[in-house]
Amino acid sequence: MTEVLDRAQPRIGGVVGGLLWALAGAGVCALAIPLEPNLLEEGLTLHIAQRIAAGEFLYRDMLVFTGPVPFELLGLIFRILGPDLMLGRWVDVVLHGSACAASFGIARRAGAGPLAHAAAASLAAAPVLLFPLFAIFFYTTVAVHLCILTAYAAVRGLRSPGWAVAAGCGAALAVLSKQTIGLVLVLGLFVSLPLLLPRDQRLRVLGAYVAGGIAVVLVTLAVYGARGDLSALLRGLVVLPLLLGDSFAAPYLNLWPIGDFSEAVRPSSRLYLPPLYAHTHGILDPIDGWIVLVAQALYALPIVALVATLLARWRRPLHAAVWIHAVLLLALFSNLFPRGDWGHLVFVLPSSLAQLVLLVPAHWRRAAWSLTGTLVIVLAAGVGLATDLLYGLAGKATYGARISPRPVSALLKTPGVPMVIYFLEKWARPGEPIFVARSEPLIYFATGRTNPTPYSGVVPGIREEQERTILEALRSVRFVVMSDIDQPVYTYYRKELPAVQKYLERYYRPIGRQGGNWILLLSRGPDRGPTAIDLFDQQASARAWIRDANGIEIPPPRELPTLATRLNRRPLPMLLGPRGGGIDFEIELPERAMFQADVGLEGLVGLDNLYRHPRNSTLVVSVRSQGEFEEAARFRPLEAKKRQLFWIPVQVDLSRWGGSRVTLRLELVPEREIDPEELSWWGSPRIVVAPRAN
């Protein structure tokens, strides 16, 4: 009896410990889910799931380049219970609690003893300490949790073919959630499992693992084949990811010099910082050196954990569960390539800490309870403090009846998105198509309006197809929503889909004067006419110049900066010297030529600076056909005592030079000497052909 009890005790302890950590992890996740609506990742999943629930088909009617599992799962839930944002988040609570229990189980079977609680605690605290991505339902969150559950099944599968089958199923589901993470896990387990087993057991366990994976793949192929969407599925899972290449690439944070960003990282440095820091510091505040050091330490953690595993093996044999967890860590670490920002790092940090816990030498185990207690207390205190901070920062839920989470980040607490949602709910007809141009698909779900295109955002690599489809759809669209400040987190919209950008400029205008908001609502207006010459596109062949202190034209000291698109206009910059500057275009003017542009927006964002338009200055349009330049028009773009948060449209009749080759000059003339580092700009300057008089 004693022998039986001795054998049963560890099993009972494992069940109880796993259940406790499942509840703890689910509880921490439940603390985070009432906060922070997510416009892109969660919005994408919600929007597509809602379309699936309405009878549309993934990959046929909606184009995505990740796996179907998260979308189809949430779509099924929506069919049964109705569309509700919190349903997906509660599924995430269940997944997270299950993954915490699995993390505890892996560590316990690795012989970590009391330190198994420390491994589980590192994951349980993640939804709050690594807020917000662990607390929302989208493809990466689902894939990460599936990977952790798969690793646990693989550890159990070393002794049980049934668990090996489960590991194969889990690995395949991870691939069908996010291909990159899942594929690394699939291959890692396929290679490592036989090496961790006696020779006579390898074929049986590996066969069971492969059988589980093949079963999931065959079921998936059968479902999509029965729909007639097999080619569409393969395109979304294989072809599109290959076309994407490194479109979303961002470098890994430099680990040297300590406390400073590299030149490659500096333009987008805030993307590498913990959100808990960002929530308490303004976007224009200088970044503290200590937080850079903290970020570098966290970015080094997965590398340290992987290297420490190899060094530990050099000194002593490691338990099979430690190696399987190392494979899991490697799979999650792969999520940082090609895009290495904070949003990808968070998913590898808990497993990195857990891996280091598993490597604690046996002779340190006497202090295991002390180490475990210290780490659990620190993490619990961190969760408490962070929860208090997040709830203190959270504003009211103002994103409409369908979006209950309260915004925390300063950007999402601004009135821009609520105003857009309120306007569309009031003025767009129920079910009316709208188009969300860039990366805010949550707007579709929040307003209950439909998307007339298969795209929930920009898909690099298929420009012509997207432009053709979107331009066709826009013919029946009254309202367009897009990020006002077109930041190059990936690339500029005007470069991704230039024909769509020009169409929006021609047919759409901001509703009212929306300057100051980061998100823009456009309404279809009068046709501004077709473009004969797009001067923004001609800037590479134009001649830029500045006037020095003596008023002499000289070449500019540096290249023209790239400015963010604002209020549906692409800014054409002009470098300035002490006495101004400009840019000359050699063009063939058509008959009845008209110059159109917008002027007056005071401030614009570039890759590395925030620029201010110089005050007390005049913008001048001049033409030279033969001899000297003749002034065609001049404009005072800025009011002297008022910030200018909107464009002023201007038009100049150039018909007297029509049909001839000319030099068109756009310049700024200051009233007094100015800072030579200043800029001026024109909004989407172009030449159009005036209609014939009746």
Output the structural class: alpha+beta
Largest sheet: 6 strands, antiparallel
Question: What is the approximate shape?
Answer: elongated
Residue share in helices?
A: 40-55%
User: How large, in whole angstroms, is the Cα Rg?
Assistant: 29 Å
Task: Describe the protein.
The protein is α+β, with helices and mostly antiparallel strands and about 700 residues long. Among the domains are: about 250-360, no CATH class; about 415-525; about 530-690, Sandwich (Jelly Rolls). The chain has helices at about 1-30, 40-55, 70-80, 85-110, 115-125, 125-130, 140-155, 160-175, 180-195, 200-225, 230-245, 275-280, 290-315, 320-335, 340-345, 350-360, 370-395, 410-415, 415-425, 440-445, 465-475, 495, 500-505, and strands spanning about 435, 480-485, 510, 520-525, 530-535, 545, 555, 570-575, 580-590, 595-600, 605, 610, 615-625, 630-635, 650-655, 660-670, 680-690. A 6-stranded antiparallel beta sheet has the order 7-6-9-16-13-14, with no helix packed on it. Strands 5, 8, 10, 15 and 17 form a 5-stranded antiparallel beta sheet that branches. Strands 1-2-4-3 form a 4-stranded mixed beta sheet. The longest helix has about 30 residues, at about 1-30. The protein is elongated, with a radius of gyration of 29 Å.
